[in-house]
Amino acid sequence: MGRQPGKRRVELPIIALLPNLATIGAICAGLTAIRFAFQQEFVVAVQLVIAAGVLDGLDGRLARMLKSESPLGAELDSLADFLNFGVAPGLTLYIWAFPGMRNAGWIAVVIYGLCCMMRLARFNVDTKSAEDGPPKRFFKGVPAPAGALLAMLPMFVSFIWSKTPILPAPAIALYLIGVGLLMISRIPTWSLKSLTIYRENARPFLIGCVAAIAALLSFPWLALTALDLAYFAGIFWSWRVAKSLT
Fold it and tell me: What does the buried/exposed string (b/e) look like for 110-148 if buried means 16 or more CB atoms within 10 Å of the residue's CB?
């Protein structure tokens, strides 16, 4: 069918498609991570999950910067989040950690994936109900991207020394379920959008960020392990702060 007579064609700047391209790139990274996990290339699989997380962090900011937010982009982003932070990490851990306990390991992966899905659904509902309000200081539960990084902590620790698990499979299964429960919990966790620093601390903060990036590039598994442990400490801290405010 051709264009309807009299219907005006609307031009769309190519740059306005960048957010959706970033989301599609994240989906491709997540799917490719699953492929490399099946090929036993676990380091590459984890790197692709992290790359998907970076792209996920960029797409929303690009959309707001370019003022090109759309319902299609929001739906793509939500689907990408479930793939990249629920399915890809879960399957990667399943293939890596549970060769000898397929059934029990699969149950842990399914619980984690369902918790991630429910966490994302709750986030979408909360976001729509608070669109006109100020940014919230705390999330309810661990966000899905942080949950994926926490779920892969046993891999980060193992990769420091070797590519094989150093923890027993039952312990990894219980840990994975625990991360899933943290995502759907009501425990307050910090929202990065609400964090502030004093102006005089801006330069030391930027230097610290550069040092953290350098550590991630030079000693990725050690740095990611430290980041996960710091996030666990941050959960306890945010819970204490939120409790003192009530």
Answer: ebbbebbbebbeebeeeeeeeeeeeeeebbbbbbbbbbb
pLDDT (tens digit per residue) in 18-65:
787 888 899 999 999 999 999 999 999 999 999 998 888 887 777 677
| 6 within a domain of the structure (yes/no) | no
Model confidence, pTM: 0.86
Residue 181 lies in a domain: yes
Rg (CA), the chain: 20
How do 138-140 and 188-190 pair as beta strands? antiparallel
Work out how many domains the chain is built from and give that number.
1
Q: Is residue 191 part of a domain?
A: yes
Report the pLDDT value the prediction gives residue 150, as an integer from 0 to 100. 96
* Nearest of 3, 55, 48 to residue 24 by alpha carbon: 55
Query: 176 lies in which domain range?
Result: 14-245
Does some domain include residue 3? no
